[in-house]
Amino acid sequence: MTLEAKNITSGYVKEVPVLTDVSVVAKEGTLTGIIGPNGAGKSTLLKTIYGYLHPSRGDVLHDGQSIKGLKPDQMLGQGIAHLIQGHSVFPAMTVEENLELGGWIIKHDRKTLDRALDKVYEHYPVLKNKRRMVAGTLSGGEQRTLEIARLTMTHPRTILIDEPSVGLMPILVDTVYEEIIKLKELGYTILIVDQKVHKCLDVVDYIYVLRLGRNSHHGPKEKFVDTIEDIIREWI
Amino acid sequence: MNLLGSSQKGMNTFRYIKVALVLAFLIAVPWIWRDNRFITTIFISALMFGIWGVMYDLQIGYGGLINFGFAGFICAGAYGSALAAHHYEINPWFCMLIGAVASGVLGFLTGVVTLRLRGIFVGLATWFLAEVLRLTISNTPGYTRGMLGLTVKPLPDVFGLNFSRAELLPYYYLLLILVIIIFAIAAFMVSSRIGLSFKAIREDQLATETLGLSATKYKLINFTTACFFTGLIGAYYAHYIGILTPDTTEFGVPRTVEVLTVAYVGGRGTLWGSILAGFILIGFQEYFRQLGAWRLVMYGALLIAVMIYAPKGLSSFKKYIW
Amino acid sequence: MELSIFVQLIVLGLVRGSMYALMGVGLSLIFGIMEIVNFAHGELFMIGCYIMYFVAAMLGLPFPLGILASGVGLLIVGILLEKGLISTLRKKAGRDWLMDSFVLTIGLMVVFQNLALIIFGSIQRGIPNLVAGQIVIGDVVFIYDHLVILSVALLTVGLLWYFVKYTSLGKAIRATSQHSEAAQTLGIDVSRMYTISFGIGAALAGIAGALLITLFPANPNAGMAPVLKSFVVVILGGLGNIKGAIAAGILVGLIEAFAMFFLAGGWQNVIVFSIVIAVLVFKPAGLFAPAGERP
Questions:
Q1: Which pLDDT belongs to residue B1?
Q2: Which among A2, A11, A99, A233 is most buried, taking Cβ atoms within 10 Å?
Q3: Which pLDDT belongs to residue B2?
Q4: How many Å apart are CA B221 and CA B174, to the nearest integer?
């Protein structure tokens, strides 16, 4: 499932576009990263792809089909899931309840839901052990794991991740990226927006650099390994 | 925003003319119709609710504090004054000041304990406080005459003017003088440094606190001052109306809702809006009096409409008025 | 004090308490999910009274149908209000949502009270009892009506509890109140959750109104005392804390039963309201909140 944002012009206020003519392609089964200085429009791009913002120009395509303007439940139906920035567990609900809610759009199909739950517990034994615990009492890293696991409940093919390391203690940041790599190995197409340029570069296959709301550089990871420091310096 | 809602500093000639016109209207009309007691009572009600609205606006529009027990402060002023006159033979003119002080002190104490709470909790606390006050008055008929009603002496004659209530005109002009003074003080407060602090606090309490302004201190000044003047007019009301009962329509939620509606319809954060709204709503009330309860349905609907469609109240239409 | 009087007071307290708990739970739910301090809650109660009167007294149908009709009727009213007015305001309001929505509900209160006055007039329309008679065990008198109120209130609160804790819709509503953005990304229709929540809160008020018609006959001002009591319960229990509302309801019921026995008429309200003010000042998150929790 390839996700493509084509010539997107988008913003919060009609007259003031944050993004102008931005294009990004996340090829099937790859991990694609979007990096850039603050204010480059990375979050705006993700919000536009996910339908929270309507682009005034351009389109968003999933496997060639336009998904522009779809609502979240429709997006999930198309196999696209979204992990928002920061903490997003339901703190007063148990781990298992959180996971079940991850399967909200398939809740009528109890069998599939149960199977998805079993699979999650297989992949994430720490969650299985704590299934009846209230999510808010889990550690920061465990909560992140829960959020990611919850995301997989509907077996999406494509995942958008907004700033995976924000709000996490440095020790835990590595764990999160490990989880993300695991997801890629399972065949998901992943698009990440990230502040941590180096960490991002470590895990991705392909990178887009955004600057001032426009495409700046892009290419496979190898292309940037040497030049990344210069690029970052450009931003300052 | 200065007292007439413009963002220009100071007053220019045009503004002076507008103020003069308004004052002329307020002074002349009741005089011209001085034989018509009905007109006088309407103007008195309109001004009373208008200035109460201004005080409510001072608290919500400038202080960000929702005072859902507003009627309790009117009650404190009214009963403070009436009881002082009744039990202690003090000159009613001085009693009005006692009423104002009672309300002001109550406001200060209330402020001290509640102002660090979130806005809505201030509203709930003041609501219950007003109920406690009203019920206490009701439960102590030995001192307050409770639901039997406390008759209040009219103001003694002064400067040769007769305040026996045979003629209401002196009451009107007394109220007008009080309103002008109170309004001027309120306007001065909001356009001065104190007022700018209110505005800053209203916009962003955290930021102003980091700048060293004590948000609580300014909120307390705002709240106490508004309560003091609310009580003063409450005391006036006692001597004007002549009888007090701790009834819920007098000093309970319905009264607070009336004042709240005036302030919201007039436009929060615009003091003059409440005076205008006072006249419009009281006039509206009299005009539609024969419609009975429909009138109140319209009141409620008006409040809802203002909240959803015109949150700035009458001031949204300012450009069409002046 | 004689044992039988003590028991009698406890029973009375529990009956009143279950009544207050029912009234408070709807209000707390609405605040917890939607952050609305619903001043019109008393009017929703009042409409419930009228529906009950219509069904049970005018149509002569058995009272459980009246209760059901009130619940369904208010569910519809609540949904219409939310979809029509409240969600419109929500789109426009910003930081001042709590206070703005409060004032909106004040407007609704005025409209409903006066519409009721116009349509029905101010006469009180009551029903003498739901079930006539009483039973005496030892020295203690149990009035059947009171027992009905107690059991229906407990049943209703129990059903609500079950709904919120175990059904998927109930869980989705809880999730929405805990993290509406996350709920949205999982495909939950957040505005629908708000509408349903308000509907349920209204239905609870309506059921309370229907159930309590023997104590609060249908009239335009029927909601005024209940709304005060509901707020007492909700403030003591903690705004948004359903368990707290239930516990606080029972507590207030018991306090009142005993206070009325020992003190003259109007003072028990003064005492209870003073406690409310104290709680607001010192423990705004409610009596049952963990220490230090900010509301």
A1: 44
A2: A99
A3: 45
A4: 26
- What pLDDT was estimated at residue A115? 93
Provide the mean pLDDT of chain B.
86
C216-261 pLDDT tens trace: 899 999 998 889 999 999 999 998 888 899 999 999 999 888 888 8
Tell which residue, B172, B162, B153, has the closest CA to residue B48: B172
| Residue B234, amino acid | G
Which burial class, exposed, middle or buried, applies to C234 when counting CB atoms under 10 A from its CB (0-12, 13-18, 19+)? buried
Which residue among A92, A100, A104 sits closest to C187, beta carbon to beta carbon? A104
Take residue B160 and report the two structure tokens written for it. Answer: 């040769």
Distances (CA, A) of A124 to A25, A131, B151, B306: 30, 11, 78, 53
ipTM confidence: 0.89
Q: Is the pLDDT of residue B291 over 80?
A: no
Residue of B nearest to C232 (CA): B128
C122 touches chain A (CB under 8 A): no
Q: Which helix (H) or strand (E) holds A215?
A: strand A214-220
Give the residue numbers in B contacting C (CB under 8 Å), as ranges: 60, 66, 113-114, 117-121, 123-125, 127-129, 131-132, 135-136, 138-139, 248, 253, 257, 260, 264, 292-294, 296-297, 299-304, 307-308, 311
pLDDT bin (cut points 50, 70, 90) of residue B211 is: low
A47 — pLDDT class (breaks 50, 70, 90): confident
List, in order, residues 6 or more apart from C16 with CB less than 8 Å away.
Answer: C252, C253, C254, C256, C257
Distance CA B306, CA A106 (A): 43
| Contacts with A50 from chain C: Cβ below 8 Å | 185
pLDDT above 70: percentage of residues in chain B: 91
- Backbone dihedral angles phi then psi of residue A32, each to the nearest 5 degrees: -110, 135
Tell me the pTM.
0.89
**Of the candidates B73, B89, B184, B199, the residue with the CA atom closest to the CA atom of residue B133:** B73
Per DSSP, the residues of C134-190 read: EEEETTEEEEHHHHHHHHHHHHHHHHHHHHHHHSHHHHHHHHHHH-HHHHHHTT--H
Longest dimension (CA), chain B: 59
Size of interface A-C (CB pairs under 8 A): 56
Cβ-proximal residues to C110 (8 Å cutoff; 6+ apart), any chain: B257, B296, B297, B299, B300, B303
Least confident of A75-79, A99-103, B12-16, C21-25: B12-16
Contact status, residue C187 vs residue A105, Cβ threshold 8 Å: yes
B293 contacts in chain C (CB < 8 Å) = 114-115, 117-118
A75 to chain C: nearest residue by CA? C187
B73 contacts B231 by C-beta, under 8 angstroms: yes
Q: What is the pLDDT of residue C64?
A: 92
Give dist(CA C75, CA C83) in Å, integer.
Answer: 12
Q: Does the pLDDT of residue C38 top 70, yes or no?
A: yes
CB contact under 8 A, C171 and A97: yes
Contacts of C218 (CB under 8 A, 6+ apart): C46, C49, C50, C52, C53, C120, C124, C125, C126
